[in-house]
Design a protein that fits this description.
three-stranded mixed beta sheet; 3 strands; single chain; YefM-like fold; 2 domains
């Protein structure tokens, strides 16, 4: 069940809202004059949403590419390419 609070609670009960978003890892929806206005969430929750959104779009992009091309890669090719990229990154970071 979503947490919905009036926007005045952000000013009057900030500590309570902060505790709520950290304990539940869920956003709090703030209303202004009875209408949705803002969403408040912890940094951890925000980063998780960003990561999940990025993964979703990458998977959607991969599904589209799979539908529109006949090119397929074996798992050996994929992992070899990934290892090479990781090694290259490690070499750059070591410099």
């Amino acid at each position: 069940m979503p947490h919905i609070r009036p926007i005045s609670d952000l000013r009057n009960n900030f500590a309570d809202i902060s505790r709520m978003v950290h304990e539940t890892s869920e956003p709090v929806y703030l209303t202004k004059n009875g209408y949705g206005d803002m969403v408040v969430m912890s940094m951890e929750t925000y980063e998780r949403y960003k990561f999940e959104n990025e993964v979703y779009f990458k998977l959607k992009e991969a599904a589209y590419e799979a539908k529109t091309t006949d090119v397929r890669y074996s798992h050996e090719e994929v992992f070899d390419d990934l290892r090479a990229k990781l090694n290259q990154k490690v070499e750059i970071d070591d410099v």
